[in-house]
# Entry
Amino acid sequence: QLQLVESGGGSVQAGGSLTLSCVGSGYTYSSYFMGWFRQAPGKEREGVASISTGGVRTTYADSVKGRFTISRDNAKNMLYLQMNSLKPEDTAMYYCAADLRRACLGFTCAYKYWGQGTQVTVSS
# Structure
């Protein structure tokens, strides 16, 4: 069983930056494909970024390309999402997710493990 806990959310003005973190439990953390998702009120959950087990391969939603960077530190069981040039439409609850399946590099996989979420609010 993998447990995930996000942190780093908050309120920021448009154009600002935030870094989200996600710590995972379990000694097999490095075997998991990881992703960040978000859900705004009244909207469906959407994939933001995903990363391979070794951190070499990444994917991004078109809406965040060039602004967000996903990374991981397997030695620390950590996943990060650096968010720059934030926009009001980035306001949402952000979740990290993990799964062992290779197909989970991307956003079409039904990730097995999820964190509780951290709120990001961007004001104009």
